[in-house]
Write a structure and sequence with these properties.
single chain; alpha+beta; Immunoglobulin-like; 2 domains; 13 strands; 26% helix
């Protein structure tokens, strides 16, 4: 498809692999997923861009005084928030792109787009030379799955007293399943509220070092998983054979059941909850490796 202007040749621009980190953890081995991420952890992103500047300018028929820049833009599927790294001038073959995204702005699927833009076109005599500042000369995209099945829904920090949660009597967190339709969007059906007035919750919300209070975060997400799986076990329309569209409540529940009860399945999980609620909870703890981390 013609863009109406000249673009670089294949190979003139190369984006190296992504390096993504949930702050406080090592870089992810697989940049397409970041299972250790949670609401309390910022995401650090780094990518090296290699640009053969003389070849790019020649292919686009741009003059030597033309200027290019590189950027990374992002979009979160949970929050529908988006943003971009301010343009970094390309002055050598290698350009380093780095940004840090606040955990509270993220969730679900994180889309990252790398772009090389025309910053200043200069004066070219060629009719097909790109001429508008901001024109995209090259782009590629990747998608990162954040968190695990216990975390794929919005997390909101509010003062429970002001919001009327639990009649304003306190508590540290509350999970709400606001739509029981298995075909409903998980991001609209499930919401985890954190009490911003609770001293321990306030501490991790304000923490400079997101690696602190790991135990509390693990307990919150264990309790979230247990509540969701108990709901799943009581939902008679849910079974292992049902097909659920990606991102739906049914998809979330079946996926979580497979993680926590891989050998039992939904039916076995349902029976275990009825026969032994204590073992039901313990098997979830074991599957999520609750409190097994090393300080």
């Amino acid at each position: 498809m013609s863009l109406g202007f000249l673009t670089p040749e294949a190979g003139d621009i190369h984006g190296a692999g992504w390096h993504l980190t949930a702050v406080g953890h090592p870089a992810a081995d697989d940049p397409s997923q970041l299972p250790e991420w949670d609401y309390f952890k910022d995401v650090a992103i780094h990518r090296t861009l290699e640009v053969d500047l003389p070849k790019v300018l020649a292919a686009c028929r741009l003059p030597a005084d033309a200027r290019l820049e590189a950027t990374i833009s992002w979009h979160s599927s949970w929050t529908n928030l988006r943003g971009a790294l301010p343009g970094i001038p390309i002055t050598s073959r290698t350009t380093e792109l780095e940004l840090k995204l606040p955990g509270k702005q993220l969730g679900g699927r994180l889309t990252l787009d790398t772009r090389v833009l025309l910053r200043r076109p200069g004066v070219s005599q060629h009719p097909l030379a790109p001429s508008r500042p901001g024109t995209t000369l090259w782009a590629d995209s990747t998608v990162v799955d954040l968190g695990n099945d216990a975390q794929r829904f919005p997390v909101v920090a509010v003062d429970f007293a002001h919001a009327g949660i639990a009649d304003g009597r306190g508590g540290a967190w509350a999970l709400y399943i606001e739509d029981t339709d298995l075909a409903a969007s998980a991001t609209g059906a499930v919401r985890l509220y954190l009490n911003s007035a609770h001293p321990r919750i306030r501490q991790i919300l304000d923490a400079v070092d997101p690696s602190g209070d790991t135990e509390l975060r693990e307990i919150i997400f264990y309790d979230t998983a247990r509540t969701l799986l108990a709901f799943a076990a009581e939902h008679e329309d849910l079974d292992d054979e049902s097909e659920h569209s990606a991102g739906t409540l049914g998809d979330l529940l079946v996926g979580l059941a497979r993680v926590c009860f891989p050998e039992r399945g939904v039916a076995g999980m349902r029976g275990l909850l009825r026969e032994s609620p204590g073992e039901f909870a313990t098997e979830i703890q074991a599957s999520l490796r609750l409190l097994e981390h090393q300080p």
